[in-house]
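Reviewer comment 2.1 asked that we show a complete input and output for one of the modelled complexes. We chose the protoporphyrin IX containing FE case, as it is the one discussed in the main text.
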Amino acid sequence: MTPALLVAHESPRDTTAAAPAPDAADQGDHEHGAAVGEGETAYEMPPVAEALVHHLHNKLVHLPIVLTPIALLLLLADRRRSGAGYLATPLIWLAALGAVAAYLAGRAQEEAFADGPKAWLVEVHERWGIAVMITLGLWALSILWPRTKGYRWVLGLVGAGLALVAAFYGGLVAHG
Ligand code: HEM
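Response of the prediction step:
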């Protein structure tokens, strides 16, 4: 993986980026859906393997953000009519593991913001992200303790709320 694949778009320290080229892999700051301007060419698909690891954090965060509320809803449904809860278990584990992976990928991307105007925002976002990771980790571990079954949804609710806040700040870091 080249360093260029780990750096953040819009970064003031993104010295690895070449002069803006229309076919560069990173076109994150372009207006989405804007017409192709004069002298510009249409976006060219980078190699899939490269595209998959480019801004890895921005991809991995979808696991906790999406799976946490779904697993929570399944647990709540299980309180009314038993049966849906067993489906929640793999989702909770996947959300927790996704949060750990997102944390590691986020740490790799944060350097690009060091000393930049958003450095403080990355710090704030990181704290919320760590809170998400810890909460989802506890949520997953609670599955190993059957006595928590009736109350497990509480950790899911807290995790979903924290993930929303972390995602809000993450969006500001990336696009604000
Ligand atoms: C599981 C917890 C976390 C969640 C849910 C989360 C969520 C997000 C989201 C939604 C974005 C915007 C992605 C996009 O618009 O494409 C983002 C960006 C970012 N996050 Fe996180 N994040 C988490 C943890 C962390 C941690 C622990 C760090 C460590 C510093 C971190 C660093 C970053 C950075 C540097 C960006 C900007 C990436 C870029 O676009 O260049 N995140 N995060």
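The longest helix spans residues 85-110. We note this here for comparison with the apo prediction described in Section 3.2.
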